[in-house]
Structure formats: structure tokens, C-alpha cells
């Protein structure tokens, strides 16, 4: 270990430090995203209470299995309500792609290509085959492959790309909401019909009943 | 120290939760496609058989009936003031021009009543 550290050049040490910093920042960022995801899913899950509340309060649903079956039906119905717009957007994207491929008779077309697809609107880099200097750590050098530009030939990519990105993200939000509600539904099924005997003593209850009977 | 480790564990949990949560969501998104198709078929059938989509489940219909009955009961329980559309002459007076009777007025009225009683 000492030998390796001794043989590190100043550039390598700086690189290791920078890499460690990047790793820490990435971990913090992932942690924050995880926290955010959990908060969002907790918020989304609350909807299941609204969906099944009336049926539970009016005692139309009065056992665990019935509660789960009813809750699942309501949950799926609500998911359909949430997901039909993103689904339509995604389907529109695929219809456009199908029409494009049929017109140009090009069934291997990549709508995200940087040559004639959605990728033309973004900066992209590729490996140059050369490496940076360094005794131990060497990085592959990148060269700019594409600068953002508009190309009429990529019209299909410009419609398909946003459709898939917007529709896909929207659909994923609906799916996360479905998952969150399902988890809470199963949690509630355990607590709503729970019968607790905490602090209950049968003998005391019997004497209490006797007393009330004699008083009457 | 304990709070530091608690925070650290929480952070680790969130770091692990994010990729696992995303994986769960992606799997559920695939499952969601089947749910979507199932619902689409069900709704289409319900629509063409003339059923109400809002109360497609039997439970929903039962809940609706119970809630309506409860609403009716609460309506009947609350006593509403009866509005008299045809008030008698005695009841008709203008509140704006109302002057409270003085002691002498009351006395006059009492003597009038006594006189009428005596005559009877």
C-alpha cells in the first residue's frame, strides 16, 4: 500500500481526491433523491384512504379479505384514471414512429440517433481512444461528437422523443403512486379490522357485566 | 454520537432505498400495463352494457344508498322553522314603525277589557 502511495504522482493524488469528492457528492445526491421519492410515495399513498373510506365507515366492507379486494379494485380504477393520458401520449409517439418507418421504409430507424433523431438536439461525446497521463489512474479521453442543431430529417425523433420522455415520466409517476397505494392498502388491512385485547381482563369484564345486570 | 449514527443509518437507508424503489416502480410499471389493459377491457364492456362507470362495484352502490338514507334522516331530524305565508291581522305590524306601548296606553287597554267584561 505504502509503495503504491509513494509511486503516486501529484496528479494522481489530486485525481483520487477529486474522485472521492465526486463519490461523496453522488452518494449525497442519491440519498436526497431516495428521501424525496419516499416523501412523494407517502403523499401519493394517502389517496387510498379517500377511496375506501366511505365503504369502511358505512360498514359495507367489514372484513380483511373484502377490504383488500375492494381496495384493489378502487386502486386499479384510480390508476387507470391517472395513466390514460400518458398512455395516449406514448401511443401517439409510437404511431408517429410507425408512420415514419412506413413512409421511409426504414424499420431499423433509431429515433434517438444523433444523426437523424432526437439526439441532434443534445451535446454528445465519444471515446477518442487516447488516455490521460498518470502512473496508475488513466482516463479515456472524450471528444465532442455532436453539438445541438436542428435537422428537418429528424422530424420523427423530435415528436417521438418528447412523447416518450413526457409520457414515460408521467406514467412512472402513476406507477409509483399505484405501488404506494398498494403498500398502504395492505398496511391498513392489518390495522382497520384489528381487535386488541390490550388491558382487557375477562374476569373483570364478567363482573362488570354482572354489576350492570343487577343494577338493571 | 447516537444521533450521528442514527442520521448515518438513515442516509444509508435512503441511498439504498432510491435504486431499490426505482426498481420496484419499474416492475410495477410493467405490471401496470396489464392492469391498464384489464381496466380498458372492463370499462369498454361496462360502457357497452349501459352500466354506470362511477358505481361499477356493488359496494359503491350500497355505500351510495346508505349515505343517501343517512342524509335524509339528518334532514328530517333538524326542525325547520315554518314560514307563515298568510299571517293574521294581529300578526301584521311593521317593525320599523313599531312604538312600544307606554304605561298609560296599557292602562287604557286594561280598562277597556274590564268594561267589556262587565258588559258581558
- The number of helical elements of chain A comes to 6
Mean pLDDT of chain B: 80
Q: Which protein chains are joined by the largest interface, and how many residues does each one contribute?
A: A-B, 33 and 31 residues
Q: What oligomeric state best describes the polypeptide chains here?
A: heterodimer
Supply the helix-strand structural class of chain B: mainly alpha
Task: Give the neighbour order of strands across the main sheet of chain A.
Answer: 1-2
Low-confidence spans of chain B: none
Listing every helix as H and every strand as E from the N terminus to the C terminus, the arrangement of chain A reads HHHHEEHH
N- to C-terminal distance of chain B: 103 Å
Taken as a percent bin, the fraction of beta residues of chain B is under 5%
Radius of gyration of chain A: 30 Å
Structural class of chain A: mainly alpha
Return the string of H and E elements of chain B.
HHH
Q: What percent of residues of chain A adopt helix (DSSP H or I)? A: 55-70%
CA-CA gap between termini of chain A: 89 Å
